Amino acid sequence: MLVLGIDLGTSSCKTILVNQNGKILNFASAHYPLMTPHAHWSEQNPEDWWEAMAESVRQVMLGYSAEEVKGIGLSGQMSGLVLLDQKDQVLRPAILWNDGRAQKECEILSQKIPHILKETGNYPVSGLVAPKLLWLQQHEPHVWEKVKTVLLPKDYLRFKLSGEKVTDVADGSLTLLLNVENRAWSPALLDVCNIDQSYLGTLIEGNELSGRLSSQASEKLNLKTGIPVVGGAGDQPAAAIGVGCISPGQTLISLGTSGVVLSVTKNYQNNDERGLNNCCHALPNAWYHMGVMLSAAGSLQWYRDTCAVDLDFNTVCEATKHIPIGSEGLIFLPYLSGERTPYCDPYLRGAFIGLSRKHEQAHLSRAVLEGIGMGLYQSLALMKKSGAKITEAVINGAGTQSAVWMQMLADIFNITLILPEKAEAGPALGAARLALIGCIGMPISEVCAMGKPIQYFEPQAEASELYQIKIKQFQSVYPLLKEYSHALLAENCHAKAEQLVV
What we know:
Elements: E1 2-8, E2 12-19, E3 24-31, E4 43-44, H1 46-60, E5 69-76, E6 82-84, E7 94-95, H2 103-112, H3 116-120, H4 129-139, H5 141-144, E8 149-151, H6 153-162, E9 166-168, H7 169-172, E10 178-179, E11 184-185, H8 187-192, E12 202-204, E13 209-212, H9 215-221, E14 228-230, E15 233-234, H10 235-243, E16 251-255, E17 259-265, E18 276-280, E19 287-293, H11 297-307, H12 313-318, E20 331-333, E21 351-353, H13 361-385, E22 392-397, H14 403-413, E23 416-420, H15 427-440, H16 444-447, E24 453-457, H17 461-476, H18 478-501
Parallel strand pairs: 1-5, 5-15, 9-12, 16-22, 22-23
Antiparallel strand pairs: 1-2, 2-3, 4-7, 6-8, 10-11, 13-14, 16-17, 17-19, 18-19, 20-21, 23-24
């Protein structure tokens, strides 16, 4: 028996084929573009997702029998907004998790519902669904008046696969429309956002069945009609399932386009540290805290594309081994898309601080790697401040390919990092595991066991002490950078206003 695990990422759709023993038999991916029509905007065409998913499924099934596929699990980028009309047609490009246009709407939500943290477990930030709904009503009323369905990104794929409009509580946690403690939609938020609950579809747990593959979809994917599709999860809780982080205290650090620190909690714990999310996990009766960095590996990708075009990832990392901790006074602020944790500021901008003639490319490379690490450290520090006892964490994502960077991160975090088997599979493996549980009926304890560690990275005491000094320097730059970033925003707005007058 085989299952498919599908992960709808920000840049590509990844699909894996897994057998009932959890072994990954095949992998395929297909890419799609990101659109930024205005500053702070981030959009994609949902139809591009569907075509990429179909291509990745067809590719991953090459050499395998469709008769053996007994389930499909879904994961995907969280907090995206997909809008359908009464004929189930997409009304506009999807507004993504890293979109910053709805900052004013966040302020409106906080004013209208002062107890919003208690109600939803989260503070308003511009990337979440609720503020984007208010933005749409204010700025695109011609679109809003046609809306009949609101879906999250992976749930659009579910709709195309099965015809069912369903989401899971883990993905729903970062809509700001869910009462996370009760694992149910919040009437108060639905009322403020002027949205009927029927628009959101059925709410289920990640391991529950959501529908079955339609004949139309099965023909496109070269699969059998009727294959069950489970609820699945957003990419971060799915990644946690994929590495076996399901018990209280277990922690995952994920190095994707965004960077995430996720720690499973005992029961629901409303953490009031601003910038930390409180979310339902992808399995029943489980929750987690999460800090999000908007540009983690995304910052590294930008750096390679602009400053290290001819170098591959490992070469960039290896060249930093001979550069001292702190990059000889050079600091990189990784705020290329604003920042979520701990600042909740979509207008913040990135920077290199402290450049001099002595700095070479390797210094810039190390500064970028350190800047990403120190940015993630802030999420870890908030969790520890709230009482979490974190001494080790599993780490996954594309960045785990470099032992140099892994050791650097262990030193910055001052905790043990565990690199597990299949770390690169990420959320797709979590989606496949949920399919094994929900579609085939395998026990959670067997399916979600933590993978065999490939390598441990222990913090070096002297390096960790030095990084505590560097982290304070890193954090000290924020007030000045915030002032500059917001002044730049005001300047750009003024320039646009003058152009309109002319």
